[in-house]
Amino acid sequence: MSEQDHFYSGEDIGFTLNNKEVFVTNVQPTERLSESLRERLLIRDIKIGCNAGDCGACSVLVDGEIVCSCLTPTQQVEGQSILTAQGIVSDTELGQKLSHSFQKHGSAQCGICTPGMIVSAYKLLQTEKKPTEEMVKDYLGGVLCRCTGYLKIIDGVMNVDNTDHGGVSGFPSLGVRARHLDGEEKISGRLQYGDDVAPPYALVIKVIRSPYHRAKFHFGDLEEFVTKNSDIETILTHEDIPGVNKFGIFPGFIDQPVFAEQETRFKGEAVAAVVGYPEFFNNFSVKDFPVSWEELQPVLDMENAEQEGVHQILPGKPDNVLCNGIVKRGDYKFGLKNSVFVGEDEFTTSFVEHAYIEPEAGYSYMDGDQVVVHACTQSTYMDLEGLEKVLNLDRTKIRVIPTGVGGGFGSKLDLSVQPYLALASLKTGQAARIAYSRQESFLSTTKRHPAKINIKVGIDGEGLIQGIHFRGKFNTGAYSSWGPAVVSRVPIHATGPYFVPNYQAETKAIITNSTPSGAFRGFGVPQATVALEVLMDKIAMEMGLDPLEFRIKNALVNGVPNGCGQIFASGVGIKPCLEQLRPFWVKEKNKAKELNETQKDNHVVRGVGVASGWYGCGNTALSNPSTIKAGIKADGTVYLNQGAVDIGQGSNTVIPQIFGEALGVTNVSFKLLYADTDITPDAGKTSGSRQTFVSGNAAMLCGLALKKKITRQLNVSEDSHLTIDGSVVHTINEPNEPSLDLATLPQDKDGFVYKAMETYDPPTVSLDSNGQGQPYAQYGYTAQMAVVEVDKKLGKVRVIKVIAAHDVGKAINPMLVEGQVHGGVVQGLGMALMEEFLPGKTDNLHDYLIPTIGDIPEIKTIIVEVPDPEGPYGAKGLGEHVLIPTPPAILNGLYNATGVQIKNIPATPDRVLKALEEAKS
Amino acid sequence: MVHLIPDNLSSALASMVAPAKIIAGCTDFFPRLAMGKVPNRIVNVSKVREMVGITKTTPGWRIGGSTTWSEIIQYPFPPAFDGLKAAAREVGSIQIQNTGTIAGNICNASPAADGMPPLLTLNAMVEIQSENNKRLLNLEDFVLGPGKVDLEANELVTAVWIPEPRNNTVSSFQKLGSRKYLVISIAMVAVTLATNSRGVIKFLNIAVGSCSPVARRLASLEEKFTDLNVSELLEHIPLDLADFSVLSPISDVRGTAEYRQAAVLELCQNAIRDAISLTGVKK
Ligand SMILES: Cc1cc2nc3c(=O)[nH]c(=O)nc-3n(C[C@H](O)[C@H](O)[C@H](O)COP(=O)(O)OP(=O)(O)OC[C@H]3O[C@@H](n4cnc5c(N)ncnc54)[C@H](O)[C@@H]3O)c2cc1C
Ligand code: FES
Ligand code: FES
User: Fold this and answer.
1) Cβ atoms of residues B171 and B81 within 8 Å
2) B98 and A67: CB-CB below 8 Å?
3) Domain residues for A592?
4) What ipTM score was computed for the predicted complex, to two decimals?
């Protein structure tokens, strides 16, 4: 190298990318490598989860070292060599092995973190062939995953040399540990997520949001602003909305504007959007937008909202109460009076953020007079219905196609980016894109409801629950969203999976000037479960009962009514779940006792806690059908239109497994088509733990129907076993073994010879004014145990082990069951110990902490199979159950270790230490 | 707007024409960029060869300002630097350690900068240069407050100097955060302990971070311990809250002020015990 100065003026930068020479021209001085790779070179396996170093999804190797490409200036990598996950998986032997191992172990759920994990794992395995678990954690510690609970990622890395690749042909059969059918797509980085679909030339949409919790606002001269900036195509405000400026979930609760009019009701609420060419936004600051704000006094907490004289937040809700819920059975007062012991306590929980690693994003364009919206969503048809009203367009003029979804957990059920996209394309006629920043995602999309719960539980001399009185208030934020669902689900579930003869639960959703609360794994049930299950332990302690046996004794069984008076003749699986824990309970209790005694002066103490959970699958006492369609073509290929959006939970694998079982044809070649409102029927939303149960049933019916058509033609019985060889269907074990050449049959215009479409809607009975009825056709059950260690001097809680028993009716895919359990338990751990969204304070992944790979316990999953008469092949839903008992199990472990109960979660170190201090004095 | 990436010191200094924004690992720079104005002239010092790497000289150790945390972790320092290495391992994640630099950590002047307490206990000095001046400042005097350092617009921090520690010096670093990786400290304590062969304490330097606007040495506490032997030191535990009065912890999203107060005491005791065990001196 010459002694001359090397100044890179910032024009054209060349480097090696995945072993190819590339150039990026006219690089901006502050251009990030992530931007250059994604937008200039279209290498979109680099994911942007935070743009701030906090998530690691953008990790790449620069000259062999792992860095965040979002923190690396492009100019700096001149002449260097860059490797991304795509390059690693396609070009290196180790990458291939990792890809296989990740697929085999189910290491990718939604897959958005996977590129970062692959890059980190590759570097580790290059450095160390046989890494220890600690090393894996150190190397992967910079990448966050919100879905898997990390354990299957660790497995995938540590077992990379295990080369038996399994291999699947035909539909994977029911009950096997089949890989995700879409796993390879995710691991190789090929799956396109919300922000990966748009071409780089698309117009960019930037939303202008309220900087205050509550404010009046006035626009300046918007026309002038557009004229002065030639790179702005248009500005959108409420005046551009052709239909109604409102969206929401439930009839009567459609109240959230796409753009606020006059007043904003929460910090981060949209008032306008700038639609412009990408260049415009390089130097655009939202402060330049012509709008003036007048801050108004907000109402931020529930106490304040209910006070007299406080301003009314939403029209038509004078007392700031959105809605109420109730379930009443027997006479709780009588029950409490008849008890020998009544425990009572109050609990509060915080806003919890979903913190999926993919912020909301999407892309739209006009296809003739139809507006096409691609977005990361949990429910295509709900998006469609919402857009229909906002746009005042016939539904045939709107098409919604979900992109890959990088996690949802409930928040991607609501509309977010979709209306902005559709409005922009309709107004400009051009393609448009939007991707929320991490902060926008935090500020503007829904949260778990903070709860304030008062609960009384009365126990008789036999240790049986005689009565429960539950009162819960839920902070629903500025708009309804799923508030009504929380308020109605909670009273149904607040008995826990126990027999409670005298019961009353009242709930209330309170409106405040906060980010709207919505759906989040469990719809309020996790909060209610904290209250009930933590109080149960206090009662057990005071009455000298063993917490596990106390629960077993009270467990609901077949033939006994739940709080809604619903009786199941079979399928109630809570008792088997609790009983499965017994040997572990005894062993872990003894071990904890022994450890605490041998290390008497140690300030780290160990405890064991247990909690139960149950959860009704599907919508609450409402019709929620799923439709599945399939067909077989003349060449023998089976097409399955599976519209249950896979947000990582696995419906793209489980639904085909169920369908394949019903179809009963081995060795078939098949093609999966996913959700798309133009081609795939409505399989309902991915929520309420309903897809395996409801869409699974539709898939089963559809498979059976298709098979019936074939067996009828063959003139064999409906349960004959079939195989397919090319276009010829053969029967096995039938007299004469008749066969059928599909190629000889008449075809429809799409080439199908047989088609079937079936719908399933779970049977429910609506609730009367006392909440009596049949809200769900099926419930799933769970009991979890947590072993925790508490540092009494620092207030730190470490979860060592969780043993999770889940009654899933029938495990369609045990590997996916474990994956759900791991992910749910780790989210539950976050909720119990660290997660607290404070609007305007913890609105990024730096300050809002979710568990990292270093914070996870060992998790043992016990699969319990008590078949459900309504479930497909007996299967029950699971997606939300997995998180419900975890927080109280951990809190009970903490109680067992220290004698201190934390009733205001999360149990952060400062709260724990304070509680320990108070207990001392 | 320009982004300059000089590869030697003289051109780096020559390019420091105000207003210039210095960047190195960019781990603080980029996350903040989202909020602020784009600077007009960017001087990227990550490749300045005189600012990268570690050298041992007679007066002590010179750690180039653009040396990354990963380089510090891998360097075969004597045991006195174990606390600094431990802090380096606790910075963010591997991704952050691979690019984040020591000068960036100091100059960013966050109260929670993990590099500060160990460097303070090692009596670190900051080497500052401009085109026509070079000065050396105690680290304590360099960092003035949150986000504030004693640096002229045309100056660069070119290195951190650490005087050669005496033999038998050990060190410990204790970080308290709410999760394992990627976490900003609620509080952290660094201790550097030098003993003679009979176990008599020559000095015990203690510094605390995240509990005051700038990380601080606990001079009054340190004085108490000089010339004691190790077992006498242990008798001083539990420490007295009064010895921590120079700290002024605040409540924020990571923890309350009261919690910090209590935790620091505990961390400090842990750090002292850890350091004592490292001396190998029998208690
Ligand atoms: C996800 C994440 C996690 C983090 N975790 C931690 C943590 O656990 N502990 C911790 O302490 N920090 C943490 N940080 C902060 C940061 O990584 C460190 O402070 C790092 O050392 C900063 O170095 P840098 O080179 O990246 O600084 P840069 O961002 O490049 O610069 C930081 C500041 O220092 C100035 N500067 C840089 N070099 C010089 C120089 N030579 N002379 C004068 N001024 C200079 C810059 O102008 C800028 O103001 C984290 C950051 C991120 C993004
Ligand atoms: S996007 Fe780079 S770390 Fe999150
Ligand atoms: S699989 Fe890791 S974030 Fe979804």
Assistant:
1) yes
2) yes
3) 520-617+774-920
4) 0.97
